[in-house]
Amino acid sequence: MDESDLARAFAEVDRADFLPPDRRADAGVDEPVAIGHGQTNSQPYTVRVMLELLDVRPGHRVLDVGSGSGWTTALLGHLVGPDGLVIGVELEPELVRFGAGNLARYGMDWTSISPAEEGVLGAPDQAPYDRILVSAAARELPSALVGQLAEGGVMVVPVGADMLRVQRGGEDIDITRHGTFSFVPLR
Ligand SMILES: C[S@@+](CC[C@H](N)C(=O)[O-])C[C@H]1O[C@@H](n2cnc3c(N)ncnc32)[C@H](O)[C@@H]1O
């Protein structure tokens, strides 16, 4: 994935389509935007950093944990293209409906948003994934999600305030740190 792939995804997936009607005027502001239920559509700068670290390629299988408004699910869908697969999971039932409705307008039938199962992190039944994006801050590295990574797979996850890039290679896990960010908690 190069800069132009990412730029195209941001240009073609309009953030305004993933905001509540009374917040659409804020789409161009580089800040998180409230989407209800104490949750946010993430700050564009942060999403860009995370997607750069994730290095998504056409055809990848991707898990989007905390799909919220559906914006990141749609951006990932654009990056993987029709030969790929993006599975969004979201804990808040009304946001599952909101995000899935927003995503449906883009007609990418290789993307979906489902309710996260209480007590189950990610979507282990459909693992492994080439890429996992986590848009809420874990207290510690979520080993359940590391276990859902394919061989060579990459996860980008905030742990506390640190943005981590986690790459799985056999039994080895390579972890690098990429700055500090503020996120709603992973529950
Ligand atoms: C920053 S928000 C939404 C980010 C989203 N990618 C977007 O741009 O709209 C993070 C979301 O993670 C959800 N969440 C928190 N813990 C979760 C979990 N264990 N499984 C799935 N979703 C979770 C929250 O309900 C919230 O909607």
Write the layout of secondary structure elements.
Layout: H1 3-12, E1 33-36, E2 39-41, H2 44-54, E3 61-65, H3 71-80, E4 85-90, H4 93-104, E5 111-115, E6 129-134, H5 143-146, E7 149-159, E8 162-169, E9 172-180
Parallel strand pairs: 3-4, 3-6, 4-5, 6-7
Antiparallel strand pairs: 1-2, 7-8, 8-9
Helix pairs in contact: 1-3
The protein binds S-adenosylmethionine.
The site of S-adenosylmethionine (SAM) has 23 residues, from strand 2, helix 3 and strand 4.
CATH domain topology: Rossmann fold
Helical run tally:
5
Rg from Cα: 15 Å
Q: What can be said about the biggest beta sheet? A: 7 strands, mixed
Mean pLDDT score:
97
The helix/strand order is: HEEHEHEHEEHEEE
Could you give the count of β-strands?
9
**CATH architectural label:** 3-Layer(aba) Sandwich
In the sheet with the most strands, the strands line up as: 5-4-3-6-7-8-9
C-alpha end-to-end distance: 31 Å
Beta-strand level of the residues, as a percent range? 25-35%
Judged by helices, strands and strand pairing, the structural class is alpha/beta
Note poorly predicted spans: none
Report the CATH superfamily: Vaccinia Virus protein VP39
Note down, in words, how this protein is organized:
This protein has 187 residues and is of the alpha/beta class. The chain has one domain (3-180): 3-Layer(aba) Sandwich (Rossmann fold). The chain contains 5 helices and 9 strands. The chain has a 7-stranded mixed sheet, with helices on one face. Strands 1-2 form a two-stranded antiparallel sheet. Helix 1 (3-12) packs across helix 3. The mean pLDDT is 97. Bound molecules: S-adenosylmethionine (SAM). S-adenosylmethionine binds next to strand 2, helix 3 and strand 4.
